[in-house]
User: Fold this.
Amino acid sequence: MNAAAEVALKPAPRRSRGARLLENRNVLSALFLLPSAAILLVFLTYPLGLGVWLGFTDTRIGRPGIFIGLENYEILWHDHVFWLSVFNTILYTVAASVLKFALGLWLALILNEKLPFKAFFRAIVLLPWVVPTVLSAIAFWWIYDAQFSIISYSLIKLGIIDTPINFLGDPTLARASVIAANVWRGIPFVAITLLAGLQTISPSLYEAATLDGAGSWQRFRHVTLPMLTPIIAVVMTFSVLFTFTDFQLIYVLTRGGPVNATHLMATLSFQRAIPGGHLGEGAAIAVAMIPFLLAAILFSYFGMQRRRWQQGGRD
Amino acid sequence: MASVTIRDVRKSYGSAEILHGVSVPIEDGEFVILVGPSGCGKSTLLRMVAGLEHITSGEIAIDGRVVNDVPPKERDIAMVFQNYALYPHMTVRQNMGFSLMLQKAPKAEIEERVKKAAGILDLTHLLDRYPRQLSGGQRQRVAMGRAIVRDPQVFLFDEPLSNLDAKLRVAMRAEIKELHQRLETTIVYVTHDQVEAMTMADKIVVMHDGIIEQIGAPLELYDNPANLFVASFIGSPAMNLIDGRIKANGSASFETAGGESLALAKAPAASDGRPVVYGIRPEHLRLDDAGFAAEVVVVEPMGSETHVMARLKGGGEIVAALRERRAFKPGETLRLSPDRDLVHLFDKETRFRL
Assistant:
């Protein structure tokens, strides 16, 4: 008699209560979920909850606050700097996202063509994404410097302007400058992701469209764009979220200046909470970002819903 | 409807020439099939007719007009792709009407032509579905519908049946042939499957390594293969090819390398001792006590006939398609006799038919 048969003949031993509990699917899955649930709780839910709670208190640095209801929000409602930061954030997000999308798509379309040194160019495109934000922000700080700006220098040498441009000193120019820096940094993400999307489109679809009589614009309009919409929805949602919550670039370049012209909600929140010491008010500003972010997420939720043509099976 | 003329067409990618000057005349309304093993250049040739590949040298004319530099959309051709290339984000109706929409045809006309094509292909009840919601065979029909709607001068098919299962392939084969008989439009069709070529074509073009081996009607290729390649490519199961020599002193015969002697109806003049390849189709062998001996290796009963793979005495294997309903056993020795009038002889050097 072989070993397997012997095992099979033995009566099953009575197992302890604990061992039987471990066999239970629900208990086991709860057990496996525990570590990640703990991490989420400690590092995500707790800080978020604390932030929301702080927004309802008058906590300052070094002094535990008391619950003051919506007072922080009432103050913010009448605070023109807060409203300016809301305006700045929306302007920053919309302008940067539109530019990132347009330029990113354009780059992706170019990189998807047959061109020499393709791998090299693709690597180059990724560079701004690879460099840490603070580093590139410092580089831009130099580029935008009131005296040593390379742009001003070049333009003066070319005889186009006489005096250096005060990039970060003038409110309009400062806004345009930080948007440009953000676009520069955000393009690779959009371009590479859209490129990945483009490469999933079968070349025979383009050939079929060509034979059907479509020119290059019609191929883009009727094949590329519709096939790319699902990935565009995902990429732009992420891009909007990243841009809306941007902090590092502004903090390094302008700290919100000149005269709060580039203060975003994230930088203002930090400004009021840490250097300003008003933790409660800072938290309230941060909490005020939540409705905007939720709106963006809901928009993408409906935008990203699988389109009817993507669904498999029969109806 | 139009004729297509392919004249001394060559195609190179860099320094590698993959089509070495091919010429194919295709008459108006003809169903021509380009067949050959993968890599023979047949798909490239088709794509050059479509205008999807540049013609390195030579000439392609559609209805008498040289189209070398005419963009695809002005060639008045429609193509059915191997993977169907249906636009996934469009319904069947939109897929079929896409080319007409691009031409800015009136909505009513598009609708009417789509309906008509859908009627021909039995797609009417699927018009509002998306490609994802269709089976392979239905997608195949939509791809053909998209071509029919345009009412082109020439249909091009690039291995359209290779993604279908065996049973559906047989059904679609009949459907395409029927479609051709109904529309009478010129069809150029590419496949690697010689059965598809044999069953559907008016004319078969056998290609191999960038050259044309033979052009002819299906039975012409079957009865008179011009060379060893065509002989081995056309017909299923493939023709048996045996190396040996001709013996022409007295009565003509063929001697295999193993020393077996097979009688010939006649020997080519002055060919005594000439090394040749002897070809006999499996279906032209029959059981005969006076025949040569062969030991059964594998038996494949097909129902209507039985394919017996047997080993010759002096080495080499031979397949016989026998109609006798008899139990053949591996190891058993059979005596087979070839139909003397249906033997093909090929020169061993030139590989051409003698």
